Amino acid sequence: MSGARTAPALFFLGCSALALGVSSTSQEQREAEYYVAAVYEHRSVLSPNPLELISRQQALELMKQNLDVYEQQVMAAAQKGVQIIVFPEDGIHGFNFTRTSIYPFLDFMPSPKLVRWNPCLEPFRFNDTEVLRRLSCLAIKGGMFLVANLGTKQPCLDSDPGCPQDGRYQFNTNVVFSDNGTLVDRYRKHNLYFEAAFDSPATVDLVTFDAPFAGKFGVFTCFDILFFDPAVRLLRDFEVKHVVYPTAWMNQLPLLAAVEIQKAFATAFGVNVLAANIHHPTLGMTGSGIHTPLKSFWYHDMDDPKGHLIIAQVATDPQGLPGTENTTSEMDGSHRKFLKILSGEPSCEKDAQEVHCDEAAKWTVNAPPTFHSEMMYDNFTLVPVWGKEGHLQVCSNSLCCHLLYERPTLSKELYALGAFDGLHTVHGTYYIQVCALVKCGGPGLDTCGHEVTEAEGVFDFHLWGNFSTLYIFPLFLSSGMTLETPDQLGWENDHYFLRKRGLSSGLVTAALYGRLYERT
């Protein structure tokens, strides 16, 4: 999957996090309400030939170059009072290995549930643990919790029916160290993304850890974010409010850019997400952030070859968007019209002379014709979005998507409303329902669904659909890879909706991305 090119960008959605402490509350209250987090987007030093089998010493020398950069970032973060730092997936060892060629890069990984261990203080307790020792010492040196990703190995016996032929399991592993260097826990990636070098554990790891400054964190990796286990189950069953998320994500627009899905997850579940992506723009890999349901502090840069450290102050108790139960938005004219359309009642407006009423059904009498175009390798059904205002509907199987919109000014760009209800089968297999308002790649209908990063068209709108799932992610980008936050999300009359007025720049994507986990 290729990434879109944008100008260098470090964005702050909402107020600067580091300015949040300026208030009349006491220092103790502020410290109880917020913690300081960091994520580092790392341009890793890669093996020049990942298919070649090298010695353990050669592998350690390569990984040391990446760990030296990690140390620089830990010390820079420590100067800012950071309490937890997250590093990306594949950041230490790299990628594109075979099962055999990655072996020299693997550390032995004892189970933290069975063994209490501080690798920095007990460096010779286990063999082949040099990377774990270095990470443990970095946590001590920085005085912070540290989350990193590495390859690990675990011997197995012939009596184990799942034991690979080479007599060992190999895992894509996240590790968590406390600020005193103790190995708190490990998470072994469950949903592998074309990773022939690694095994998926026989049972999914459901890993949480408690940090004294913030409470309970959950842990998962990259592709896991699109699946029920472990991501959703952690939030549903373990009262997790914060997620640490190492990733090596290749951007794919319009629906699955890295920062786009990170932010959508934070908003959908009302949690904080600390997401560290790897930085290889030529491979389409960039996009990290510290995301709360209401704010994001993020980085996406397809030009600068260097890594980037993000630091932000984060609420210990994240607050979500307003829903339908606690809002006065029904007093707004556009929202009143939206509610009328949903109920099938006439939509009436009063001017100086008389009251004008339009039946809701009349909005779609002169609707533009539908067409089909490929978006994210799926065959979407779409309608063009023409004119300064209107109500459009488009359906795919059992899903019908609606758009009620007004445009302050018209641009020459083509936009379309699309719907897809079906099994996605490329780069993973999973069932989705999607309602998407997208800017097309050009003037032709066949360009709707192409990758776009810049736009001028501004909309005030409601987007909604009759989704068959409760798990719906609001994907929302405007021009220049700028993350937008909806004004409101919620259910009305068995339809899920997103509402927004006052975009910060031209709209690239506004989508409701539903996952039907049970149908995957």
Describe, in plain words, how this protein is organized in 3D.
The chain has 520 residues and is an alpha+beta fold. Helix content is 15%, strand content 33%. It has six helices and 28 strands. It has helices at residues 27-33, 56-79, 130-142, 228-237, 258-269, 333-343, and strands at residues 10-13, 34-41, 84-86, 107-108, 145-155, 168-177, 183-188, 208-211, 215-219, 242-247, 272-277, 288-291, 296-299, 308-315, 347-350, 355-358, 371-375, 378-385, 389-396, 399-406, 415-424, 430-439, 460-465, 472-478, 482-483, 488-492, 495-500, 507-515. The strands form five sheets. It has a seven-stranded mixed beta sheet with strand order 1-13-12-11-10-9-8, covered by helices on one side. Strands 2, 3, 4, 5, 6, 7 and 14 form a seven-stranded mixed beta sheet that branches. Helix 2 links the parallel strand 2 (34-41) and strand 3 (84-86). Helix 2 packs parallel to helix 3 (130-142). The chain is elongated, with a radius of gyration of 24 Å. Residues 1-26, 352-357 and 359-365 have low confidence and may be disordered. Residues 1-21 form the signal peptide. Pfam families: CN_hydrolase (PF00795), Vanin_C (PF19018). Its EC number is 3.5.1.12. Keywords: Glycoprotein, Hydrolase, Signal. Residues 49-333 form the CN hydrolase domain.
